[in-house]
Amino acid sequence: MARPRPLPIDPLAEAKRQWLAHGWTDAAEGMAVVTSIMRAQQLLLARVDAALKPFGVTFARYEVLRLLAFSRSGTLPLSSVVARLQVHATSLTSTAERLVRDGLVRRDPHPHDGRAALLSLTDAGRDLVERATAALNTEVFSSPGLDAGDAKELVGIVARLRKNAGDFTDPRPLPEPL
């Protein structure tokens, strides 16, 4: 896919100028924050999608695989995956079904809770997530488009935004995001 040419002006700066010109001064900075973060998310997701395309997984599926691979046994209750990834149970169920269909995870009944299910990483899932992680590390995470100082500052700023929105209460584990 050809990369589009850069625009001669920043459309988000122009949007802010328009907000100010229309007298929405109290909302202009907030509009610029929201639209800037949303545009940055689009740009980063495009890079992530390109890195994951050869593996046939979306970032949502990758996150489930990576979380399972980080667990001691490669197995977690579905409810724990929902909580840790901060997604709706319905979305995770759909994602898990695709991973099961592709042979990357197993969905097993919980041994002590008949209403719960466990997700377990298969050998194929473990192999894929390790290869996908290497690709993401090389193609996206090692050079996100900011120098190390700006990256650290941005992570801290976004962590404060998330904390103020009620996303979490305790900033641990280390390193501290704030």
Radius of gyration: 20 Å
Low-confidence stretches: none
Mean pLDDT: 91
Q: Tell me, what's the shape?
A: globular
Q: Order of strands across the biggest sheet? A: 1-3-2
What is the CATH class of the largest domain? Mainly Alpha
Q: How many domains, as an integer?
A: 2
CATH topology of the largest domain: Arc Repressor Mutant, subunit A
Separation of the first and last Cα atoms: 37 Å
Q: What would you give as the CATH superfamily of the largest domain?
A: Winged helix-like DNA-binding domain superfamily/Winged helix DNA-binding domain
Describe the structure.
With 178 residues, the protein is mainly alpha-helical. It folds into two domains: 10-55; 56-141, Arc Repressor Mutant, subunit A (Orthogonal Bundle), CATH 1.10.10. Helices cover 61% and strands 7% of the residues. It is built from seven helices and three strands; from the N terminus they run H-H-H-E-H-H-E-E-H-H. It has helices at 11-21, 25-52, 59-70, 78-85, 89-101, 123-141, 148-164, and strands at residues 75-77, 105-109, 117-121. Strands 1-3-2 form a three-stranded antiparallel sheet. The longest helix has 28 residues, at 25-52. The model has no long low-confidence stretch (mean pLDDT 91).
